[in-house]
Every structure is written in structure tokens, then in C-alpha cells.
Amino acid sequence: MKNVRLTYPYRHVGLDHDWFRHAPTHLRPPVSWPDNKPVALWITVPVEHFPLDAPSQPFRPLGSLPLGYPDLWNASSRDYGLRLGIYRLMNVLDRLDLRATAPINASIVNSYPRLVDEIAIRQWEFSAHGVDMGHLHHQSLERDVERKMIEEAQNTVSAAAGGPVQGWYSPDRSQSSRTFALLAELGFGYATDWANDDMPYEVTTPSGSLYAMPLTHEWSDRHLLVQHNLNVDEYTEQVWQAFTRLAEESAQHGCGRILSLSLTPWIFGYPHRIGGLERMLTRIVESGLTWNATGIEIVDAVRIQARSTFTTLPSPSTNTR
Amino acid sequence: MASAPGVATRYDYLPLIDRPRIRWPDNARVALWICPNIEFYELAPPDGQGRPIWPRPFPDTLSYSLRDYGNRAGIWRVMEACERFGLRCSVSLNAAMCDHMPEIVDTCVGMGWELLSHGIYNTRLIYGLSETEIREMILDSTATIRRHSGKNVDGFLAPAISSTETFLDLLPECGIKYTIDVVPDDQPVPIKVRNGRLVAIPYSTEINDIRIMGMRGHRPDEWADMLKASFDQLYQEGEHNGMVMCVPLHPFVVGQPHRISAFHDVLRHITSHEDVWFATAGEIADWYLKHYYDAAAQYRVSEKAVRP
Q1: Which of B16, B206, B233 sits opposite A83 (nearest CB)?
Q2: Do B90 and B248 meet the contact criterion of CB atoms below 8 Å apart?
Q3: Do B222 and A231 count as a contact with CB atoms less than 8 A apart?
Q4: Are the C-beta atoms of B38 and B94 separated by less than 8 Å?
Q5: What does the pLDDT look like over A13-36, one tens digit per residue?
Q6: Average pLDDT of B179-208?
Q7: Nearest chain B residue (CA) to A133
Q8: In the predicted model, what is the mean pLDDT of residues B275-280?
Q9: pLDDT score recorded for residue A16
Q10: What percent of chain B is modeled with pLDDT above 90?
Q11: Do B16 and A94 touch (CB under 8 A)?
Q12: Do A114 and B183 touch (CB under 8 A)?
């Protein structure tokens, strides 16, 4: 029999799976934002709980507790984000009149009612962020078990939000091959786990479709400040580069773009970082180039425009070069 | 299916925007304390502590000597800097330093520094120890430090920030008033324990020299900028509610000749401000226990938001 390493069953035009089509960003139908703003400013503030007894499998998510049980030191450092960090972020966003999307772990909702209400009163968007950072999604989960995890998060956060949540963010973007289908089945409008585009794209599953939203990984605080150990000035310089480039491309292609920011309370909420963030956000807002929107507001804008134009999307066989 | 709240069972949720106002002496905005960790790492610590102590097999000459540098050269530079700016420290002290290098401990005492217990050796983790064993270690450490300094020991930090489920409960029983093993805040936090009162004093772990320069590879000037930015933010917030800033130090990191001037920069920046209470951790704990502990422990946070 031929060595499997020399057989290539999915070697054809397009992707090696059928979850969505390969569709280059610049070849897709253009979208525009309200007031013809070139860049949608989409801010995500994940509200996360790291349990002391989280398993080390299937992998340790960013922010998981690195020391032996019980790692009080790091658990309380994460909790700092919920006691102080998120309020410093709120203070900055309030001053600039900005709203955010708050993916929130289900296990936080009932333990931190005040925090939940502070999010609600600002009319931020609630989205479901799994059970907690100790409950990752992975291929070995039984379909029913994963469905229950998603449902628990959906129901808990929807109750807090006072209506069904539309957005999903898996803990540290973990998915199984069934996650998209389960999300569609349960009525989610979008998920933010994939890092492969600058713009939303449609994911079709046997249970229906939803959008993949481009939550930044590469210029997130998680990646630049924690994984790459940059300081805030280096972070803000890279975000500014992203922002100006996206604004230029918007003009060039006649298509709205998205500046996604991921501002994590246990990362950005510390006093040595918050001042630099405020200076950067002020500069971005004062450029006058942005439409501040939540995840679902962006998805809704795209959805309405796609209804008239989506059929013009090139098919997989015609979009090679 | 939602899991337990974890560490938050040790304290109540007090959000930054809804908590009793703290006023420090003379209405200072920030209570600032400096925490050099003066540690003794054994060349041949016992095996079987849950994780290896040294990255290399015995004898790990590089890691051992790097830490010993702090006790031969680094600490004296830290002392000189603090003396120049007229500041006292609260030393997180491995009590065995009193036995191995009493001249360092004596100098700290002579400078009016506070000594808090950091266990016996930094190479003796407490994972898996019984309560009786942990109590013995704590009492050994406080008795040793008291014998050398003539002063009671008020604070505790477990060696190498190891822990058990119940060691915090043992601290007040051993005469300890404050811990820096729990770091959820920039203000003191009442810690729930079986008996007595215990308060967590903020330790500013995110701007620790070992974390920023030792592990993350930041330049000394970047570390100094982080501390200055941190101070500026807390000084601003402290106008409305007194905050705490800690400057955590490891003499083997910050006491290197290419880094020590960054520490001078930080002290120059902070001492150029008026409304700072230069305190020891013990003084902060005493002030808080006397004036605010009960109010905070009894405070009920509103579940409803206040319109921003």
C-alpha cells in the first residue's frame, strides 16, 4: 500500500475541508459602513474566569495558571482584571464614547452580577464565551457534551443580556470539527474563533450558516503584550500601522474594513498599560475615520448588504489568481 | 456545569468603582512600599517537591550562582539606592539568611527596614505539606527573624509562591497580619480565614523586576517606564481613593550594574511627587486593619450599576 505521507486526498482547488469556501478578501463584494466611514472600530473585551482546578488537556489556554495547585498567585492576578482592570477599560471607553463586545464566560455571570450590570448599562454587546477558561472545546468531546456546554453558555449569557446572544467566542478559540455546526444549530449569528481574514465571511454547515468574524489575533494584547512581551508603545505602534493600512485599503478598494481590538482586563487593565491604551484610542477616534460598532452590528450591516450582492461571489473554480 | 469561583472564595468582590474610600496618613494618594526579596536558594534542595527546583541537574552552577550574585553584589546596590533617596524597604526574607549571611540581615535592621517571612529557604516548596508541617515552618521562620532583628514578623510570602489549600488559614494563627500570596488588587483586601483577621497587601506582580527583565527580556529603561506609568496612574486614581504601589525587587536581577540606574530613575520619579506615603508593608497593613478592614469586610456591593 502506498505510504499515506505520499497520498493527498484533498489536493484540489480550494480548501482541504468543506466548512467554508476559499474566498480572497479583496475579491468578495464590497461592504460599506454607516456615514461611509472607512474603518469599523470593533472592540472586544473578554471577561474570563480561570478555575484553580482546570485540566491541562487538550491544551493550556493563554492565561491558564502555570504553577502547582492551588495557584492562588496567578488566579488572583486574573481576578484583578474583574475587580480593577475592566473598570479602567470602561473608564477609557466611556470617556471616548466607545462601546464594546464583551464575550463572557458563563461561570462569571452569576458570581459577578454587578460586573454584568455595568456591561449591560453601557449597552455593550454580550457574547457567549464558553463555560470558563477551564472548559475548552476539542475533538474528543462527545457531540452532546459539547452541545450542552455551548447551550449552557448561551442560556446563561442570554439571560444576563436580556435577550438571545448572537456572538460566540470559544475559550482561547478552541473548537472541534463540530463547533460551527452546533453554533448554527443553536442559532448563533457569528463566531470569532478563526484568524484567517480581515472581514466577515459566511460559514455554511448542515444545520445552517453563520458568520466568522475577524477577531484580531496578531495585534491583540494577548499576542503582542503577553506572548511576544512587547511594551505598550510597541503595541500601539503596530495597531496604528494596522489602522492606517486598513483605512488606505478601504479607500483603494471602496470597501469598509474592520479594526478589531482585543482588550483583555487582566492584561490591559494594569496601571502601567492603561495610559498608553487611552492615548492610542484617542488618536484613532480623533482621526474621524471610524465607525464604532459591536460584533453583531457589523454582522448585521454585512448581512443586509450581502443579501443583494452575495450571489456575485466568485465560485471556488474561478477565483484562482 | 459552571465550575467553582476558585480563588475568589477567599475574598468578596469589591469592584474598583464601588468600595469604601481609603485615606492614607496625610491624605497621601499612594502608599508606596519597596519589596526586595532576599532569598537563599540551596545548591542541593530535597527532591520530590512536585517540580524540579533547578533547570539543570546537580550542580546547576549557573542558576545557583546567578541568585547568589544578589547576596554578594546586588543587594548592596539596592541598599545604596534606597539610602540615597531616604527610603525604607520591607524585605521578603528567607529566614535562613539570618543563619547564612547575618551581615545582610543586620544591615537591613540597621537601616530600619521591615522583615517579613518568605519561609526558610526559597528551595522548600510547601505543596503537599501538612498543616502541622507548614505551621512548624512558619513559626521557625518568624522566630528566627525575631531572634536576629528583635522585632515581630507581621507579613508572609510562601517560598517561591508555592501554596496549599489551607496555608492562608494558618497565618493568623502564627501571628501573621498580612500576606502577599494573593494579588487581586491595588488596595489591601480582607482575606477570609478560619480564625482571626488577615489582609492581602498589593504586590504589583506585573511589574516585578524578575518578571519584566528576568523572564520577559525587557530593557531596564522599559521596566523603569512601566513602573513610572504605573505610579502615575495610581497617583491619579489615588486622588479619589488611596491606592498601594509595591516595587518588587530581586537583587540578583535589578542589582546588576546595567540595571541599577533604572531603579534610581524610578525612585527619582516617585520621590518628586508630594502626596506619597513611603511606608512599609507592615505599616500599610496596620493602618488598614485599624481603619478600614471592618468597613471593607462588611461592605455590600450594589448589584446594580450606576450610570457612568
Answers
A1: B16
A2: no
A3: yes
A4: yes
A5: 999 999 899 999 988 999 999 999
A6: 97
A7: B3
A8: 98
A9: 95
A10: 94
A11: no
A12: no
Taking an 8 Å cut-off on Cβ atoms, the answer to whether B3 and A51 are in contact is yes
Asked if residue B4 has pLDDT above 60, the reply is no
Percent of chain A past pLDDT 90, that is, above it, reads 93
What's the pTM?
A: 0.95
Q: Is A2 helix (H, G, I), strand (E, B) or coil?
A: coil
CA distance B225 to B208: 13
User: Are B4 and A271 a contacting pair at CB < 8 A?
Assistant: no
| pLDDT number for residue A320 | 36
SS3 content of chain A, % helix, strand, coil (to 5): 45, 10, 45
Per-residue confidence band for A316, with pLDDT thresholds at 50, 70 and 90:
very low
b/e per residue, B24-50, with b = 16+ CB within 10 A? beeebbbbbbbbbbbbbbbeebeeebe
- B96 in A contact zone (CB under 8 Å): no
Mean pLDDT of all residues in B182-198 = 97
Are B230 and A272 in contact (CB < 8 Å)? yes
A83/B13 Cβ within 8 A:
yes
- Region of B105 (left: φ > 0; alpha: ψ -120 to 50; beta: rest) is alpha
> With the C-alpha atoms ordered B297, B298, B303, B307, is the resulting torsion angle positive or negative?
negative
pLDDT in the model for residue A314: 45
Provide the strand spans (E) within chain A: 39-44, 101-104, 125-128, 167-168, 190-191, 201-205, 208-212, 257-262, 290-292
Other beta carbons within 10 angstroms of residue A234's beta carbon come to 15
ipTM value, please give it: 0.96
- The percent of chain B in helix, strand and coil, each rounded to the nearest 5, is 45, 10, 45
| pLDDT at residue A313 greater than cutoff 60 | no
Give me the total of CB pairs closer than 8 Å, taking one residue from chain A and one from chain B: 154
Cβ distance of A73 and B181 shorter than 8 Å: yes
Chain B interface test: which of A65, A234, A272, A278 (most B C-beta within 10 Å): A272
CA angle (B205, B210, B213) in 5-degree steps: 110
Query: Three cell numbers at B168?
Result: 492562608
- Inform me whether the pLDDT recorded for A321 exceeds 50: no
Contacts of A84 (CB under 8 A, 6+ apart): A269, B15, B16, B185, B186
Residue B58 contacts A where some CB pair is shorter than 8 Å:
no
- Position B6 scores a pLDDT of 57
| Burial bucket for residue A34 (CB in 10 Å: 0-12, 13-18, 19+) | exposed
The alpha carbon of residue B128 is apart from the nearest alpha carbon of chain A, in Å, by 10
Residues 6+ apart with CB under 8 A from A244: none
Residue for grid cell 480548501: A15
Q: Which residues of A touch B6 (CB under 8 A)?
A: 49-53, 75, 79
Give B240's contacts (C-beta < 8 A, 6+ positions apart). Answer: B21
Q: How far is CA A33 from CA A210, A256, B75, in A?
A: 20, 6, 59
> Which residues does residue B175 pair with via DSSP β-bridges, in sequence order?
none
Reported as a single tens digit per residue, the pLDDT across B31-89 is 999 999 999 999 999 999 988 999 999 999 999 999 999 999 999 999 999 999 999 99
Q: Is B7 on the interface with A (CB under 8 A)?
A: yes
* Cβ within 8 Å, pair B16-A87: yes
One-letter identity of residue A12: H
- Give residue B234's pLDDT: 98
